Amino acid sequence: MHNSQFTKHMRPLLAVFLAIFSSTAAMGQSMPAEGQTDSVALANPAAPQEQTILRKAVGEKAPDWLKDVADRIQLHGYAQGGYVYNHKDGTNTNTFEIKRVLFWANARITDRWSFLFMHDFSSVVQEYYTEYRITKNKALTVRLGQFKNGLTLENPLSPTAMEAIDVYSEGVTFLSGCGSDPLFGVQYGRDLGLSLYGETNNGKLRYELDVMNGQGINKKDGNNFKDFIGRIEYRPVEGLALVATGQIGRGHAIATSIYNPDIKVGDDYKRNRWSVGFDYKSKWVKAHGEYLEGYDASAVSRGGYITCAVPLGTPKVEFVGSYDFFNYNTSLGMDQHKAIAGFQYWFFKKCRVQVQYVYKSAYVAGGEFVKGNSHSVMCQLQVRFN
């Protein structure tokens, strides 16, 4: 009798976990845009698709509290992978690769309080945080945990919303900790800390203030200094956003860098940044651009980019183009030009196929910055479910 009652009450709970892991497995097997972030807003009710999956799992006769749990959980995921051919320094290379396989679940604990966990199956745990909306409207929300910081226009955006296959511009990748700065390491634009953010004036004015460790993901701070990041976004008319961001902080070097050879491993150094940019969307064109500067000890880096996508007769097929300039150290003349041209086909909602040609005027090889041309052809399949 005891075992029978236990089985009766545990069956719905086990069904919930089965639904969650079944969704994860389906994403991995099938490799499941505008301005979306990986860290989706958590205050909204669960999407109908996720509600249906979980409700079927728990059954109509499940306890009321279990049905309520199903209504409060959202499941999301996407995968990006493809083929890359590269020619530089007289050498040809080519490879198939899986770039990202992300799955995240967010839970609405109350109408104001929520929690998110995100994992990249091709990498590491990316995000885990809780947030609480302090005001009745969207004017002020506090977030605590590990998440993408607000530096630069592009960094908070999901790779599924970016036009380029190699995702962010050279300046954003270097300055926001997405991987090309050896002093900071590969941090995927994320860090541990506290954030206050919100919007006013019917969504026309948005802001974000972050206090971060400045050491990257899944790490304690390497020094006693914190990084302060500010972001303000103004939308004067529909479809146009003007964005300014800045950072003041001190880094703790985890490796040496050809871009800044004076900084040694373990050194604490000044690490300040700022940027201004725009993002414009209409049915005729999607475009965004930015100017950026960074200061690492005595080294100065600066650059800018503009990227666009233009529909070719139908919103499903777009031409993609981008020009990107970045000087990693103005004193050493480490400048690089990058150009991208290609096409993308949206075959189902947020799922697409992309083909792009990428030209660069400089690259790193053998621990040296080389002024030489490189040419790449990239193909990518993206599948996403919300």
Write the layout of secondary structure elements.
Blueprint: H1 2-30, H2 48-58, H3 64-72, E1 73-88, E2 91-108, E3 113-120, E4 125-133, E5 141-148, H4 170-175, E6 190-200, E7 205-212, E8 227-234, E9 240-248, E10 250-252, E11 268-281, E12 286-296, E13 299-311, E14 317-327, E15 335-348, E16 351-360, E17 363-365, E18 368-370, E19 374-385
Antiparallel strand pairs: 1-2, 1-19, 2-3, 3-4, 4-5, 5-6, 6-7, 7-8, 8-9, 9-11, 10-11, 11-12, 12-13, 13-14, 14-15, 15-16, 16-19, 17-18
CATH class: Mainly Beta
The CATH homologous superfamily name equals: Porin
Supply the CATH architecture.
Beta Barrel
Q: List the strand order in the largest sheet.
A: 1-2-3-4-5-6-7-8-9-11-12-13-14-15-16-19
Question: In percent, how much strand structure appears in the residues?
Answer: over 45%
CATH-defined fold name: Porin
Mean pLDDT: 88
Number of strands: 19
Order of helices and strands: HHHEEEEEHEEEEEEEEEEEEEE
Compute the CA-based radius of gyration.
Answer: 22 Å
- Estimate nothing, just give the exact number of structural domains: 1
General shape: globular
Low-confidence stretches: 1-35, 40-46
Reported for the largest beta sheet, the result is: 16 strands, antiparallel, barrel
Secondary-structure-derived class? mainly beta
Helicity level: 10-25%
CA(first)-CA(last) distance:
42 Å
Count of alpha and pi helical runs? 4
